[in-house]
């Protein structure tokens, strides 16, 4: 199982939100590029980057920064937040991003995602963010009347082969992941699922490995030192944790 460090960018800085609440932001670094290099040096094989400003439709101020990260990093990045059209996706891929993550657009116009899959294949990922089982959109500021599992099944039928599933109630809380929901998503979509939200310990990573997910995104726990990325990567591979 892959362990993927997250870099959430708002106003050009690396931040984390609590349960997706923009008013409960913690700034962790002024230089997201330095953070990306740190995660690469620790052994990451992929970095998950989110444009929080773009997710709320607040312009493209972070796009050049994200493109620069894609150019200078020795490992690939996947990017979500603000990719609300095929043109926006094409621009990100053209800038060197390995995978693009559709969110709100997938909930509102699934047929566009089918077109994206036809064009870019497995470079297309869909992020499904859920609050109490319902799909959230627009940077998690709104919830639509759609069940997360039903949306995933419909999108899988259109050819989507990879999902990022976030339980918003757990995101940024460092409580623990919603293991049952992650296992259910992996079992019912017949696609690759990357879990997101709530990881606080290396033991959480090891337990997620047993749910059948392809990977896990880790954010706040890396920034505050609760999880060592190298240890988490080993746990994802199934290696035993260090005893000292």
Q: Care to describe what's here?
A:
This protein is an alpha/beta fold. It has a single domain (2-237), classed as TIM Barrel (Alpha-Beta Barrel). 37% of the residues lie in helices and 29% in strands. Strands 1-4-5-6-7-10-11-12 form an 8-stranded parallel beta barrel, surrounded by 8 helices. β11, α9 (202-209) and β12 form a beta-alpha-beta unit. α7 runs parallel beside α8 (179-189). The longest helix has 11 residues, at 110-120. 47% of the residues are buried.
Considering the chains and any ligands shown, give keywords for the structure.
244 residues, TIM Barrel, 8-stranded parallel beta barrel, 11 helices
Low-confidence stretches: 240-244
CATH architecture call: Alpha-Beta Barrel
Reported by name, the CATH topology is: TIM Barrel
> Which series of helices and strands comes N to C?
EEEHEHHEHEHHEEEHEHEHEHH
Using the alpha-carbon principal axes, give the shape.
globular
Let me know the average pLDDT. Answer: 90
Beta-strand portion reads 25-35%
How many distinct beta strands? 12
End-to-end Cα distance, whole Å, is 24 Å
The count of domains is 1
How are the strands of the largest sheet arranged? Answer: 1-4-5-6-7-10-11-12
CATH H-level superfamily: Aldolase class I
Describe the largest sheet.
8 strands, parallel, barrel
Number of helices: 11
Helix share, percent: 25-40%
Structural class, judged by helices and strands? alpha/beta
């Amino acid at each position: 199982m892959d362990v993927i460090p997250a870099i959430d960018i708002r106003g050009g800085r690396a931040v984390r939100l609590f349960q997706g609440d923009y008013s409960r932001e913690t700034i962790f670094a002024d230089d997201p590029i330095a953070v990306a290099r740190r995660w690469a040096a620790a052994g990451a094989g992929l970095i998950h980057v989110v444009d929080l400003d773009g997710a709320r439709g607040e312009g493209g101020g972070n796009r050049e920064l994200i493109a620069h990260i894609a150019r200078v990093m020795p490992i690939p990045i996947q990017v979500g937040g603000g990719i609300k059209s095929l043109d926006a996706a094409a621009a990100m891929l053209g800038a060197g991003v390995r995978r693009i993550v559709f969110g709100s657009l997938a909930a509102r116009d699934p047929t566009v995602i089918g077109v994206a899959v036809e064009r870019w294949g497995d470079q297309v990922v869909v992020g499904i963010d859920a609050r109490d089982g319902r799909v959230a959109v627009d940077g998690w500021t709104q919830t639509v009347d759609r069940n997360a599992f039903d949306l995933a099944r419909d999108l899988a039928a259109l050819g989507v082969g990879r999902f990022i599933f976030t339980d918003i109630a757990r995101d940024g809380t460092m409580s623990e992941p919603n293991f049952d929901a992650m296992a259910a998503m992996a079992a019912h979509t017949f696609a690759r699922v990357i879990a997101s939200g709530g990881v606080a310990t290396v033991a959480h990573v090891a337990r997620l490995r047993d749910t059948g997910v392809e990977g896990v995104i880790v954010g706040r726990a890396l920034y505050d030192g609760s999880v060592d990325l190298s240890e988490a990567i080993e746990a994802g591979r199934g290696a035993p944790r260090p005893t000292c």
